[in-house]
Write a structure and sequence with these properties.
The chain is mainly α and 206 residues long. The chain has a single domain, classed as Four Helix Bundle (Hemerythrin (Met), subunit A) (Up-down Bundle). The chain is 74% helix and 0% strand. Helix 1 runs antiparallel to helix 2 and helix 2 packs antiparallel against helix 5.
C-alpha cells in the first residue's frame, strides 16, 4: 500500500514524538546543574511536530488525499504527543529539590486530558460506525491549540525562567495557562457529550 505525503508527514510526527519522549525522560529539575539543553531540544521538536500537524491536514485537504489511514493515524499521533507530554510534566522529572512541580501540571489533570481523548475516540468510533460524521467541535479545536501552546510555554519558561519575564511571572503564566487548558478540556468534554446525545437520539429514531 502506497502511503501518501500527508500520511508520511504524520508518521514522521510519530517518530518525532518518540524522540521527544526519549529526551524529556532524561531531564531532572532536581539536579544542581540542570540539563537545560534537553528542554531546548524538546521545545524545538515539539514546535516542529505541531507545525507538521497543521501541514499534513492542509495537504490532505488541498490535494484531496484524505484517507482512512490518515483519519485514524493523525488524531492518534496528536493524542500520543499531547497526553505523553503532559504526563511527563506531572512526573518527577520536573520536581525541584523542595518537592514542588515547576510545571504546575498535576496528575489528575493528566487523567482528565487522557479521559477526554478516550471518550471522544469512543464516541467518534461509534458514530462513524453508524454512518454519521463526528467532526471536531470549536471547543475541541481550541483545546488542541491551547494544549500545544501551553506545552511550548512550559518547556521554554522552565528552561529559561529569567528570560523575557521574571521567574515569578513565568510561574504565574504557567499556572494560568495550565488551568485554562484544564478548563477548555473540560468544556470540550461537555460539548462532545452534547453532540453525542444529539447523534444518539437521531440514531435511535432511525
Amino acid at each position: 500500500m502506497k502511503i501518501n505525503v500527508p500520511n508520511q508527514i504524520t508518521i514522521g510526527r510519530l517518530v518525532l514524538a518518540v524522540i521527544f519522549f526519549a529526551l524529556i525522560s532524561r531531564y531532572d529539575h532536581g539536579l544542581e546543574r540542570r540539563p537545560v539543553w534537553l528542554l531546548d531540544v524538546c521545545l524545538s521538536i515539539f514546535v516542529v511536530a505541531a507545525i507538521t500537524d497543521v501541514v499534513d491536514g492542509y495537504l490532505a485537504r488541498r490535494q484531496n488525499q484524505i484517507t482512512s489511514l490518515g483519519r485514524i493515524l493523525d488524531p492518534f499521533v496528536d493524542k500520543v504527543l499531547v497526553c505523553g507530554t503532559f504526563a511527563f510534566f506531572a512526573g518527577g522529572g520536573f520536581v525541584d529539590p523542595s518537592g514542588h512541580n515547576v510545571t504546575r501540571v498535576q496528575m489528575w489533570m493528566v487523567v482528565l486530558i487522557l479521559g477526554r481523548e478516550l471518550l471522544v475516540t469512543g464516541l467518534r468510533g461509534f458514530s462513524e460506525a453508524q454512518g454519521t460524521s463526528f467532526g471536531a467541535t470549536l471547543y475541541g479545536k481550541a483545546k488542541m491549540v491551547l494544549q500545544a501552546v501551553t506545552a511550548a510555554v512550559i518547556l521554554f519558561s522552565v528552561a529559561h525562567p529569567d528570560l523575557i519575564l521574571s521567574r515569578e511571572n513565568h510561574e504565574q503564566v504557567r499556572l494560568v495557562m495550565v488551568w485554562a487548558t484544564v478548563l477548555v478540556t473540560a468544556l470540550s468534554i461537555l460539548a462532545y457529550l452534547w453532540k453525542a446525545k444529539t447523534i444518539l437520539s437521531e440514531t435511535s429514531r432511525a
